[in-house]
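Crash report, auto-generated. Payload:
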Amino acid sequence: MLAALGLMTVFSAHAEWGRQVLWVVLGACAYAAAASFDYRRLRSLALGLYAGMILILLAVHLVGHTALGARRWLSVAGFPLEPSELSKLLLVIVLAAYLSRGERPSGLMSWRSFGGALLLVAPPACLILTQPDLGTTIVFVGVLFGMLFLAGASAWQLFSLVFAGGVALPVLPYLLHGYQRRRLEVFLDPTLDPLGAGYNLMQARIAVGSGGLFGQGWLHGLQGQLGFVPERATDFVFAIFAEQFGLFGSLVLLAIFGTLLVRLLRTAAISSDRFGHLLAGGVFVMVLVQVVENVGMNIGVLPIAGIPLPLISYGGSATISMLAALGIVQSVAMRRRTVDEPVAELGTITRRAQA
Amino acid sequence: MRLVAAAAVAVLVIGGLAIKLAYLQVTDGAKLAGMARDNTLHRIVLEADRGIIYDRHGTPLVANSPIWNLEVMRAGLPFEARARTAELAELARLTGEPEEKIAATLVAADAYAGVRIGPDLSQVQQLAINERLPDLPGVLIVQRAVRTYVDPLVFSHVVGYVGPLNDAELKRLRPLGYQPGEVVGKVGIEAGLETSLRGQDGWAEVEVDARGQIVRTVDRQAPVPGNSVYLSLDLDLQRATSQTLAAGLVRDRKTAGASVVVDPRTREVLALVSIPGYDTNLFTHGISKADYSKLLNDPDRPLLNRAIAGQYAPGSTFKMVTATAGLQEGKINANTLLGCPPYMNVNGWIFHNWANYNLGQMNVAKALATSCDTFFYQVAAMVGDVTLAKYARSFGFGQAQQIEMPGAMPGLVPDRIWKALECGVSDLNSDACRWNTGDTITFGIGQSYLLTTPLNQAVYVAALANGGQTMRPTLIHQVRDPSGRTIQSLHPEVTGSVPASPANLMAVREGMRQEINPPYNMNYWFRASGVPADGGGKTGTAQWGGSGLDLPTHAWFVFFAPYAQPEVAMSVFVERGELSEVQAAPIAVQLMRFYRDHVAAIRS
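Recovered output after restart:
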């Protein structure tokens, strides 16, 4: 259902919506495959997945394509692939595998595990930050923090992480690209440069605002249809959605995301093992961070970072990895009582997972 | 427990977003929706087509040809710094403008305004860039009309050219609704009939997308094109005049001259040529500094319209005025015989005739035909400078003609009052200020301080031809509004008449008739060209640049034809010509031959 809404919006944003249909279909297959695949076997594959993640991220640096001033793309058999999207899912799996090693269902995390998790996340995070891809790095940090919390990190451990972040923050501007630093400055005052760096932000806010209560209707909306909102099929897709469907539609969209998040948490709660618990929890954090950051930047409460709105934004890698992630969670849900029925039908599963 | 906390965080954060969203969409909604409309609605000016200038038979002398420019709208450029830099580099390559200059221009301009970058594009360049436009967000190809003149070297001094308003013009024309940067006539008819040619700009309210492409027109007011102006010029006669004069100048190794042909019955100017001309298309298509300074520094001063603004002594062509004054004032009659000695002694000063031998006793007609200087010294002395000046003015000397283009100069008619006022010395009785007899008698042969223009000469000859009426010359045959209705047509406008009896004017014309007929040498040109010597002419070789015997001269020939009912009156001027009889006169004869054949061709 989310994917259908996404299709409608992407269509209205003039992107190549035929391809997005293909991505959703491929994603559905990935979902089905992941759901029927026993998630517990992922655990033994975790080390290999981690190595693979590092490899493709390295490959991006070596042979990747450059788009919009950043090297983020790999060409696989003619299809552009954005490995940082896939890496979010891989990170969740790897962290879940690592943090569930001891199989201690309760109790606090040791400092050793805590440090190990940080060391595990650091290499891919650095590779992504230097692409540069600020958005995915933010998701990484969010997922790390959330999963450590769910895995039982102590208040001190989490506080030390926040503290480290607080220390790093003033240094961050020097590590950022010029345009990223400008985005931060402009976020603090969008009128600073309304036609340069603040342009995206202003135009997106104008689009969201002019949606009003009930929106201007599908395929209407001056801002989106006339191309004033930049990156309208990807990062700013929410602005387009809000302009067309208004506050009402936007709240419905948020409610759907809320329901999805609740389902993810429920799966975590009922999972039969710690690995499954952390997998579902990790996906929960991943979706939450992306929704919040994307909607937040679209309405101007968070700085701009290139993060897709899960399942709504145009993009093959993001759509397929997200559906695959949901498929894994579905696998967790289905196997809580060692149920091993064959997969019935795609539609049923989708409905069950997304309510 | 931790899951509950996570759920709480999720609910809080998403709830917060929802509240902010509600605030933005409902509270600020109206304001932001208004901003969305401003983003997209633009009022653009629809430029009116400038009126076309035709010759009297309806052949266009100028076209509004399309020209293309590359324009960049800053707001449409890519947001990402690298993509933006790459596009600027590409623009620099396409237009040949330095990248820093483009960037500086864009920064200074309104973000939503198209800013012209680089020189005008040819159709081929335009098409090439058009194909690349999808890769160049924010870049537009804009078409506009630019004046392209037909035969600019021949018509430059009549038609003139247009250019963007300068500050002084803008100040003057702002009350008439002119906008900064608007194109306005600078010289010639383009300037003289500016208000008629201009038309009325329209506007359109259009919806544009972020790339500046027009999506939809909301409202529009169509522009009204300017009026069509039909000049009194005959295209063929103008060309022939230009070619004949140019050929004559080349033959005699001269570089500058002018000629004006008028119809003495209707006051219409049939040809008006000043050589050298210049390429007016250079100005409308954006003249380069090098070309402009070349025009400014050319010793032949191509930008000077000699026909209306070149002021020269008329020399012997002025003798008809002296003759008219002498006859009308009763100092001589048609049969009075005066001597024509080789020189005269006036108060110890020697004044020469052109011949160093005595031509004997003669009447006024023969004196004109032989151009005897000493005869007219005597007449001028009898008439006096003040009276002679009065007759000169009655023939249009000393007045700027009210012709439909700016820049006509008056020339100068001197007399003792003028000299006293002009001498610049406080003691009016000093030698520098006092008018002397020498001034009077040289005035009588068109020298002294007397100055005229080729246009004034044509008006003067036309008055002799038509029986003594000076008419305001005109370059306009008709003006038609955009629907083709004639809103202004020719009507004769007599500005004055010469205070002379028909009989006396007849006696003067008789002298001009004799000059081009046997036994006088001037008849040779007519016989050689096969043109009947039916009319009247007068040569003039005017000294300039001080006083003395071997001064540089200008050559003149004034002419009207046919004798009984004149249809054309003309002046021919050769700058630095030494011999009017062989340098200026044959040009008029050639022109007359062309005119006769041309009129015969039109009538048949």
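Post-recovery validation: Chain A is about 70% helix and 5% strand.
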